[in-house]
């Protein structure tokens, strides 16, 4: 059975999708962009953008009763690989080194609202 996960502590969906779906103990989190849920505005600059995306992901995980330790897979989309090192350091700071998820990072030509980064995750309940 699927359960839709939704929280006001992460940006509302801007299309026909859910923030996340929980099915059979697996949480599928939609791609998060750097929108501050309190203001509805985009944050700018790869450092601030990465922090905001990770905070949005964390809010969804929390709503589902999970943490970053539950994440088994992350997909990272960057407009420029020149931002990789900065993004990678910030991304890693939110995670437990003992339980890094599997991951890919790809450069894309454009992202929603022309942001520099989008991250989606899959997590599993213990």
Automatic annotation (TrEMBL):
Q: Tell me the InterPro entries matching this sequence.
A: RidA, RutC-like_sf, YjgF/YER057c/UK114
**GO CC annotation:** cytosol
What SUPFAM superfamilies does the record point to?
YjgF-like
The cross-references to Gene3D superfamilies, in alphabetical order and at most eight, read: RutC-like
Check the record and name the Pfam families matching this protein.
Answer: Ribonuc_L-PSP
Provide the GO MF annotations for this entry: deaminase activity
Highest taxon of the lineage: Bacteria
Q: Which family does it belong to?
A: Belongs to the RutC family.
NCBIfam families from the xrefs?
Rid family detoxifying hydrolase
Report the protein name in the record.
Reactive intermediate/imine deaminase
Species per Swiss-Prot/TrEMBL record: Chryseobacterium glaciei
């Amino acid at each position: 059975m699927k359960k839709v996960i939704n929280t006001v502590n992460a940006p509302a969906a801007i299309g026909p999708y859910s923030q996340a779906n929980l099915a059979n103990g697996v949480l599928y989190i939609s791609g998060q962009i750097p929108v501050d849920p309190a203001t509805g505005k985009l944050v700018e600059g790869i450092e601030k953008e990465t922090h905001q995306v990770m905070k949005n992901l964390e809010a969804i995980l929390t709503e589902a009763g999970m943490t970053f330790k539950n994440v088994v897979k992350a997909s990272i989309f960057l407009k420029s690989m020149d931002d990789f090192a900065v993004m990678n350091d910030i991304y890693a700071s939110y995670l437990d080194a003992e339980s890094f998820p599997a991951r890919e990072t790809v450069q894309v030509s454009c992202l929603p609202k022309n942001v520099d980064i989008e991250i989606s995750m899959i997590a599993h309940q213990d």
